[in-house]
Amino acid sequence: MNKNKVNGDNKLFQQKRNLYKKIIGFLPEAIVLVSGGMVKEMGKDGTIKYRSTKINEGDSFGILWGESRMLAVAELALCFPQTKIIITSSPFHRKIKKISAIREELELLSVLKNRIILEKISTNTLSQIEESVKIIYKKEIKKVVFITNEYHIPRLSTIYKNFESLASPDKKTKRIVQEIKCSGTRVEFIAAEAILPYRDKKYIKIINHLKKSPAYQKRIQNEERGLSMIKSGQYGLKKTLSARKSERKMCNNQ
Hints:
Blueprint: H1 3-24, E1 30-33, E2 38-42, E3 48-52, E4 57-59, E5 62-63, H2 66-79, E6 84-87, H3 96-108, E7 116-118, H4 125-138, E8 143-148, H5 153-161, H6 171-182, E9 186-191, H7 192-199, H8 202-211, H9 214-232, H10 238-246, E10 251-252
Parallel strand pairs: 1-6, 1-8, 6-7, 8-9
Antiparallel strand pairs: 2-3, 4-5, 4-10
């Protein structure tokens, strides 16, 4: 192999690694992929398969683009080869074979299977945080970054910040979160949109176009409602979660 090419590749790898470390704020011990929905489709052999939602797919609340989170995590995983990857269960289901589909997508992008931890219980954003922190606590992880979409960051981070005061989580999980915060564990929430342009410059135009779409604006409006519910103390109540889940329906947001 050409020595200059090897040196060039190593230099590019180190540059990206330093860049992502700067964006996150530290070298992560774990990356949490907050899954953003799955789509069922028929394979060529007639079998049912699942995949992450693409840029034009979402639910009744607007765009999802779960694929962007998966691609961003794959990019980070390549630059941080010792970092564990935690995949949360989908907001639409918790069947193992469906959540395993995201792991398979990461494997196709050169992420080794033995680095991936599947969280198989969560069904919504609140429980995604609940179940993720349990894994973080059990494995004594001290530096973790959650990867989701930019529109999702304010609600996700606010839930974590106010976790102990929310109505739904049980006392044990609230205690775990409190211990994590008091232990000095560093937790950051980074948007996939902050990573993808460095994976491929084409995403700059794609992201700018997406943010102007009605489906994206609809998602922003719904996220703002979620933030208001956190502040009013309504977030996490069982009747609220049931009402929002009943409205979930996968759709094409072209």
